[in-house]
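Propose amino acids for all 202 sites.
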């Protein structure tokens, strides 16, 4: 049975606007984020799904509730954003001032061997292993043709570059952007961005 997932980044939050690192901090959608999620309704009207999964953080769950129209959303903590530990709530400039540019560069790296974390956070490999495990569990243990997974920007970016190491430019992950993920021969296959809310009228 052919299966695919739509990976959906949550709508915008006040911390996104303020460029603060969110991680596991439970920040809700702001008004703009809710409007983005309403635009996303059009995508799912044209591309219906059989099941909906979501990170249990409010910004992802609220996006799922507004956009999917599903009465029952399967919440999975394993679909959360990368845990950022001590830098949550800080901006890039604040992190660099505290930990240095080299630490930031190690953390931001998308190289296959990258495996850095700030104190109290997840390393690259820890976050990827967690996320991939839960996506594989969805594919292996649930019956569907198409399903939606509402999750987070850094997690999608790390997964995309991990599965498509030939990509050289940093993958853009817009709020309420939709990416397609296929399951073939017991492996995840990342197909890239297929919906951008900025391209939707109104």
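Proposal:
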């Amino acid at each position: 049975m052919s299966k695919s997932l739509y990976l959906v980044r949550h709508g915008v939050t006040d911390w996104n606007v303020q460029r603060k690192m969110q991680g596991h901090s439970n920040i809700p959608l702001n008004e703009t984020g809710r409007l983005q999620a309403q635009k996303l309704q059009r995508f799912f009207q044209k591309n219906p799904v059989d099941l909906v999964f979501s990170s249990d953080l409010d910004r992802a769950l609220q996006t799922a509730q507004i956009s999917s129209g599903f009465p029952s959303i399967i919440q999975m903590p394993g679909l959360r954003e990368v845990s950022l530990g001590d830098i949550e709530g800080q901006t890039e400039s604040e992190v660099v001032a505290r930990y240095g540019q080299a630490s930031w560069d190690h953390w931001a790296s998308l190289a296959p061997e990258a495996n850095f974390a700030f104190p109290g956070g997840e390393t690259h490999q820890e976050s990827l292993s967690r996320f991939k495990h839960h996506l594989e569990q969805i594919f292996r243990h649930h019956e569907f043709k198409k399903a939606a997974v509402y999750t987070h920007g850094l997690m999608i970016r790390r997964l995309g570059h991990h599965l498509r190491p030939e990509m050289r430019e940093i993958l853009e992950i817009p709020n309420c952007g939709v990416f397609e993920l296929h399951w073939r021969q017991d492996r995840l296959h990342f197909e890239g961005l297929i919906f951008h809310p900025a391209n939707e009228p109104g």
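The longest strand covers residues 187-195. The longest helix spans residues 124-141.
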